[in-house]
Please model this.
Amino acid sequence: MNRKQKRTLKNIIISIILMIIISVIFKIIDSRMEKLPNYAVRLIKTSAYLVPYLIVGLKVLKKAGRNILNGRVFDENFLMTLATIGAFALGEYTEAAAVMIFYQIGELFENIAVNKSRTAITSLVKLRPDYANIEKDGEIEKVDPEEVKVDDIIVVLAGEKIPLDGVIVEGESFVNTAALTGESVPRRVAAGEEILSGCINEQGRLKIRVTKEFGESTVARILDMVENASTRKSRQESFITRFARYYTPFVVLAAVIVAFLPPIITTQSFSVWIGRALIFLVISCPCALVISVPLSFFGGIGAASNHGILVKGSNYLEAIAKADTIVFDKTGTLTKGVFAVNEIVAEDISEDELLSLAAYAESFSNHPIGISIKEEFERRGKVIDNDKIKNTNEIAGKGIELTLIDGNIVYVGNKKLLSDIGVDPIDKKPNSYGTVVYVAKKDKCLGFITISDTVKEDAKTAIEKLKSQGIVKAVMLTGDRKETADAVAEKLGIDIVHSELLPADKLTKLEAVMKEEKDKDKEAKVIFVGDGINDAPSLIRADVGVAMGALGQDAAIEAADIVLMDDNPRRIATVNTIGKKTLRIVMENIVFALGIKLLAMVLGVLGIAGMWFAVFADVGVSVIAILNSMRMLRFHE
Model:
C-alpha cells in the first residue's frame, strides 16, 4: 500500500470503531433520551454519527462539491453524497455512515487493484536509470543521464542498469534483457557490439560510447509509450464512459420519480418512498462498470508487458483480439533474415569470377543479401579491391549497376533488372529454393547465385496457434521470387502469397487485402506484422501494426501499435490470446454488473431490499468485478 491508501485504511478503521462505540452508547442511553424532544434526539444522533461519517467521507463530499462547481454534477460522488445526506434527513444515521464507510472500502479496494495493474506496466519505469557514470581523471562521477551527450564514454559496473544506448568500447559481460524482452537468459556482449538502455550489466565492467541522448534512448521511448497507453481507449471503455454520462442523470431522475410519484398516486407517506429512492441511488452507483472495464484492459496491457510485448493502447488490444486476417512480411518476421549463399551457377565464366562480380557490385551494400555475398567471397579468401570500382548505382527494388575501372558494366539483381536491360536468364534452374541473384552484362546473363534464408523455428507453431484462435486467413508479402515464396508458405501454412514485390508494392497489397476484407465486413480488422526496419508505412496503415524484434529500432517503436521486443513469432499468438481473454473478462463484468444492479434496483423500489442490502449490492458487485478483472495479472502463456 502507498501512503495515501494507508491513510484511507486508517480513516476507515477509526470510523468503524467510532460507529461501534456510538451505536453501543446509544443502545445504553436510548431509554433515557425518550424524555428529550424529538428534534433534540435527532440533533444529538446526527452530530454523533457525523463524526465517523466525515472522517471517512469528507473527501467524497469535497469531490462532489468541486465537480458540481465545475459542471460535472452526475457522478458516483454525487450519488453517494445525495444518498447519505438523504439517509441522515430520514433519521437512518447508522445506515448513512455505513454507506459512506463501505463505499470508501470499495474505493480503497479499487485503488489497490488499479495500482497492482499499473505496477505490471510501470515495472518498466524501474528501467529508468537514476544516474550514469562518467570517468574523469581516473575517478567515476555520477551524473544525471540527461546531461550525457552523444559520443561521451560512460562506465557501467556489475549490477548497474545501462542508462543510455551505445556501443561497447571496452569490456565484456552478460546483460539481463528480461525487463525489455521477457527473455530470462542473459546475453553475452563484448567490445564493438551495440547495447541498449534498460538492460542490466550482470558481471564485468563495461565502457560504452553513447550513441543517443537520453530523450531518444530505447528506455525513454518505451516509458513514453507506456505512460500514454491509457489515452487510447477501446470501444468498450469509450462506451462505458458515454454510458456513465447518461446513466447517472437517468438514475437520479428515476430516484426522484420513485420518491414523489407513488406517494402522490397512493396514500403511502413520502418518507417511505424517499427511503426507497435513496436505496435505489446507492444500488445504482456505476462504480463496478466504471472501474472494472478499464482495469481489465490495464491488466491485459500489463500481462503483455510481462511477456515482452508493449501495447500502445487498449484499443489495439481489442482490435487484435477481433482480427481474422493477418498479413506477414517474410524476411526478418517469419524467417531469420540471416542469408547464406547455397548455390552458384555460372555460364562461360568460373563460379569464382561470377561471385567476384557480385561481391564487387554489393561492396557498399548493407542489405542482408549483399552482405551474404560478400561474406561468401571473403570466406573463399578473397578481398574486394575498391580501386577496381569506378561506380555503383542502386536500382531500387531491382539490383545494382556496377561500373568497373576498365569500363565494363555489370548488373546484379533480380529478373526485373534483366528484363529492363533486355537480357534473358540462363536456361538452368536453381536446385534449391531461395532468393536468386542474377549476374549479367548488357548482352548476356552470366549466371546466378541462390541465397536462402532460414525459417524461424516457432513460425509454423505461431501460425497454427493463430488459426486455432480465429485467424481465418494468413497472407505473406515478399520480394522473393515466386518459387521461394511458395516453398516458405507451404512449409508454414500460409494461405495467400504475394511474391516478387518491390518495397512500395507491399503497402499496395496490404491495402488491397484490407479493402477485400472490409468489403465483406466493415468491422473486419487486419493485422500487419513486420520486422520494423522498412515496414513503417504498412505498420501505420494496418488496423493493428505489430513490429516484431523491434528492440532498439526507433522506426518500429514509433510506427507500430504493438511492439514485440524479441524475434519470437509465438509472441503474436500470445498477445492475441491476451486480447481475447481481456475482452471475455470485460463482457463478463458488464453482464454481471448490469444484471445484479438491475435486479437489486427492482428489489429496492419494491421495498424488499433495505439500505444495508444496497450497500452490499454496490460494494459487493464492485469487488467481484475487480477480482475478475485482476485475473489478467495472473496470465501465463
